[in-house]
Model the fold of this input.
Amino acid sequence: MTLAVDGTEHTVDVDTRTTLLDALRERLGVTSVKKGCDHGQCGACTVLLDGRRHLTCLSLAVAHDGAEVTTASGLGEDDELHPVQQAFLDHDGYQCGYCTPGQVCSAVGALDELKEGHPSHVTEELEGEAEPTEEELRERMSGNLCRCGAYAGILAAVRQAAGEQEVAS
Done:
């Protein structure tokens, strides 16, 4: 099967039972995707799959032959950080850093969903672009857990990336 990971196409042989997470980590050596719970509950394995956030531990690799996978490592361009990555640095949206790649990919996906007008459970108006309120951002990021409890920094980073908050001085 083939996968385009962070802009590089890879051909890999995998067993039909191999998860996308294991194909990325064990077969392709992509370590920015983390294995947390292996049950789809923590979000550490979140990537952008064909532009949408996706839990790789719940997907069989063979189901995504030809897909484009973007990890947190593949977000920036020309040695510049993606705005979400920069916001995580600006607001210390990490402690141990284990969940950070999944948090960053989830934030990018969540902000794209907002721009595209996809409602969440807390969205008041179902038509048009949802506002990036604190409640809205918390709901959209709720599938990503941080064992260190860096949620204040994570939320501040996502708000900054959404354009709602300036960099703290």
